[in-house]
Amino acid sequence: MDAHIALIGMGPRGISTVERIAAYLDGVAAVPQLTLHLIDDSEIGSGRVWRTDQPREMRMNTLAGAVTLFTEPGASVGAAVLEGPTLYEWIQALRGEPLTEPKARLLRAHPVSEAVAEGFAAEIARTREESNPTRALYGAYLRWVLGVALARLPEAVTVERHRARAVGIAERDGRDEITLETGERITADATVASTGWLLNTSEERLARSGHPWVRPDNPIEQDVDALPAGEDVLVRGLGMGFFDLLTLVTAGRGGRFEPASLRYVPSGAEPRLTVTSGRGYPYLPKSDYRSLPPKAVLARHKARLAQLSRGDAEISFGTQLWPDLVRDVFEAYYRTLARVRPEALNEGVDKIVRRIDDADLEAHASAHDIERVPAALTAALDGVSSEPFDLVERITPLRGTEGLGIDELTARIKDLMGRDISEAAAGWDSPVKAALWEIHGARKPTGLATENGRAAPDDTALGKFMAFGQMVGSGPPLFRTRELYALVECGLVRFLGPRPSLAIDEAGYELSSEGRVARAGVLADAFLPNPNLSRTADPFMRSLLSAGRVRPFSPHGTPTAAPETDGATRRVVRADGELDPRVHVCGIPTDSQWADVAISPMPGTNAPFLQETDKVAASLLSVAKQRSM
Prior knowledge:
By secondary structure, the protein is of the alpha/beta class. The chain has 3 domains: 3-199 and 531-628, FAD/NAD(P)-binding domain; 204-283 and 477-525, FAD/NAD(P)-binding domain; 299-396 and 420-471, no CATH class. It has 19 helices and 19 strands. The protein has a 6-stranded mixed beta sheet with strand order 3-2-1-7-19-18. Strands 8-17-9-12-13 form a 5-stranded parallel beta sheet. The protein has a 3-stranded antiparallel beta sheet with strand order 4-5-6. Helix 1 links the parallel strand 1 and strand 2. The longest helix is centred in the middle third of the chain and has 24 residues, at 317-340.
C-alpha cells in the first residue's frame, strides 16, 4: 500500500529531513511506494526567512564559512552521512574554485543553475569566508540542497508540492487528514511540523486600538510601509529584528551609510524612532576577526560539565557551573591583555590566573543571581592591572542611568556603542571580546547539559545567563552597529531605556521606562516572539492542542512554551502522556525542551539540528512502514 508522509515547513529543517529520508532509503533493496508531501505557504526549499526574492539589504547573522546543511563524518546520525559543501564552499564552486572530494563530485552530479550564478554574480564574486551573505543567497543554497536531496530519493518515492499553509489536522481511521488553507485535504500516515518561528496570539488591545501597529513577525513580512516618513514611531525590540527593520526604513528608503565616517545621509523618507526593550541596550556587535571566529577554551567549564554528566541529578547553573565559567571568562581577558598590552599588568599573567583559581567564588554563588560571582572576582583581582575587567558592568550596562532623560540616556548609550564598536573592530586583540566569547561559547554545552528538564527548578540564574549570552554573542555584524551609531548621531534613533510599560489612549501609544516617557501615533514590534504552544496563533498547532494530541513540556510540573516531544523520535506527547502515533514536531518551537536545535548547523560540529532531523526521518519512515505492511 502507498504510504504518505507530510512535511509541514520546507525551510532548512524540512530540507534536512528530506535529505535524511533519502539517506535512510539509499541502498534499501525493496523500497515501498511512498509519497512525500512538501507543504509550505512560502518558497518550498527556502522557507519564509530565507526567501530568495527578499531585499538584498537583508543579511545573514552567520558567516559564509560557518554554516552547512550536510552531515559530516563522525556525526551522531543513524543513516550514512552525505558530505556536501558549506555555504562558502558552494560559493567557491560557483566562482570556479576547486573543492575537495567528495564535495566536488556532489556538485558535478548536481550543478547549480545558471540563473542562480548570474542573479547573485556580484555577491558571489566578493564573498569571503568571514562575510555575512544576503539571506536571499543562503535561500538559493538551501534550494540547491533540497534539489540534491530530492534527486537522491529512490524511484518508488513520489514527491508532491503544496504551496499553502497547513491549518488543521484530524484523525481519520488510523491516519491523519491535514487541511490546507486552500481547502485541499491530505491524508498522511506520518507528519512532521518543522514550522520555525510561529507567531503567538496578539495583544487584543493593540489590535483593537485603531492606531497603526506593526505586529511582531519576520521583518520582510512586516508592514514597514506603515512607519511614516518624518514622524515619530515607538519601537519595541533591540535584537536582530530591530536591526533588520532599521535597515528597511533607512537604506531601504534611499538613505546612504558612509561606514568610514560613521555617518548617515538621510533620504528624507525615514521615520524618527524611539526604541526600547527588556534590557534597553542593543545587542553587541560581533567581532571582526577577518576570519572565522576562534573556539572558546572553557577549560574549567568543560571539566565541570564532564563531572556533572556522570550522574543524572539536577544541575544548578548558578551554584555549580557559573563560578568556574567566570574563572574561564576572566582568564581569557587577562591572557589577551597580556598579549596585546602587557604594560597594563602589574603582575605576571600566570600569577593572575593562580589568583583567579584561588578566589573563593563558590561562597558568592547564587541560584538566582549572576552578578555576585564576577563582582567578587573583580574585587579579588584588585590592583593586578591598570585595565581591570568588570563583567558586571557588561551584564548591566545601564545601571545608574535611572535618573537620566531620553536625550541624556541616548548620549550615554551612544558612547557605550562607540566603545563596543572599537572592541569589535579590534577582533583578536580585544581582551573584552575574548572574555565575552567565552560567555557565548558556553551557551551550547550549558544548554545541552541542562536540557529536557535537568536544570534545577529554582535556578533562575540559568535564564539570566542565557539571555546575557545571547546579547553578547548573537548580535549583529559590526557594520550594522556602525549604522545604528550613525543613525543615533544624526537624530533618527533615540533610546528610552529598559523594561518598558505601554499605555494606549485616543491620541496613540505611550511607552515609559524609569520615568522617561515617549509618545507616538505608531508602534512597531521589531522582534520575532519565541513560539508558545499555549498561546500559539498557528491554526495547525492549535488543532493539535485542542484535540489533546500535544501538551506543553512541563518539567517539575511547570509548563513551558514548548510542545513536549520524545527524545528518540520527536513524536509529540499527548495530553494523556502517551506518544502520538504519527505526529512529530522539531526545531525552534521545542527550544524550551531541547538545546541548540534552533541554531543552524556549523561545519565541523556534531550539530543537534542534524541529529534531530535524522531522528525525525527515521521515525517518519518507521511509522509509514507500518502502513505499507
